[in-house]
Amino acid sequence: VKSFDTLALAVADVGVNNGDTINIKERTTGNGGGAFWDVVLLSTVTVTTGAPAFGNVVASTGDASLALVLRISGKLNVKEWGATGDGVTDDTLAIQGAIDFLASETAIHFPGGEYIITSTIVQDHRVDWTGDGLQYTTIQNNNVSGEDAIQFTTAFFQNMSHMRVKGNALS
To answer: Pairing mode, if any, of strands 127-131 and 113-117?
Structure first.
């Protein structure tokens, strides 16, 4: 395991190779814990467009054929994808990016906060949603055209717990 102080240093390093595991130290201080990243061929992954610059798949600048992929285990914290939950910022792209990244039958966690969305979040596979409690975690649908807040298109047995959704309907 190679260690780097920042994600920027790891991305720019020419000494990382396909199959390496790296540890980014910057995530250890005030940012939800340390993180391990896997180095893979860029051609095997999709870099989400519109996602925050610190998304979970980052193209390497040190070797243009490589990408770094955040190793996910257990629940994904939606704030790791750039959602703020501050009740002001539009968190739609961050939430959708996290949902799209996750494999079937995994979980996403929304720490306490108010997550603003302005268009429908579409989920086409099973992902369990959890929050920190009804009084602490809210998804607020601020879509002015009356669209649904969340649309579960092909999934069965969806679980949402310890959170609430305010605004337009679920479908």
So the answer is: unpaired
